[in-house]
């Protein structure tokens, strides 16, 4: 699933997390998807498992790339905000509001960066399940 039109709101961490949750639906449902679309040996003749696995592979690749872009884009945007606030803070050392805002943005940046780790775990789990069920039906291209 792609990000909603109009881009991603990186300003509100809760919205950012909610978007990622929606975008991770394919990964959350992969076991069910594989159980309902990739046949067991006894039903192998009734469904084209190689085509099903290929389509699922392409969907997973697209979903993972899309989420990676969203996370990295928000990290870049928030990093820029932090940089700008630091510069302002250096000019106005007595401004406590600025300091609070800087701390808030730094915390949000750390949370966003931690989403990269979550993403790695989610992706690894999905590829493990995918490979267990699809390895005999579909071989992903070597360059990916």
TrEMBL record:
Protein name: Protein MIX23
Pfam families given in the database record: MIX23 (PF09774)
InterPro entries xref list: MIX23
PANTHER family: COILED-COIL DOMAIN-CONTAINING PROTEIN 58, PROTEIN MIX23
Family: Belongs to the MIX23 family.
The encoding gene: MIX23
Coiled coil, from the record: none
Protein source organism: Oryctolagus cuniculus
GO CC, alphabetical: mitochondrial intermembrane space
């Amino acid at each position: 699933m792609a990000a909603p039109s109009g881009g991603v709101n990186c300003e509100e961490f809760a919205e950012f997390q909610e978007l990622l949750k929606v975008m991770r639906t394919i990964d959350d449902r992969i076991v069910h998807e594989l159980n309902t679309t990739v046949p067991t040996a006894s039903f192998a003749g009734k469904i084209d498992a190689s085509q099903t696995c290929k389509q699922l592979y392409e969907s997973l690749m697209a979903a993972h790339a899309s989420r990676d872009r969203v996370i990295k884009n928000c990290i870049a945007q928030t990093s820029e905000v932090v940089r700008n606030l630091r510069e302002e803070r250096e000019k106005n050392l007595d401004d406590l509001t600025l300091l609070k805002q800087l701390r808030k943005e730094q915390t949000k940046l750390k949370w966003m960066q931690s989403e990269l780790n979550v993403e790695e775990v989610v992706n690894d789990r999905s590829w493990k399940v995918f490979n267990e069920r699809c390895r005999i039906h579909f071989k992903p291209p070597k360059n990916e």
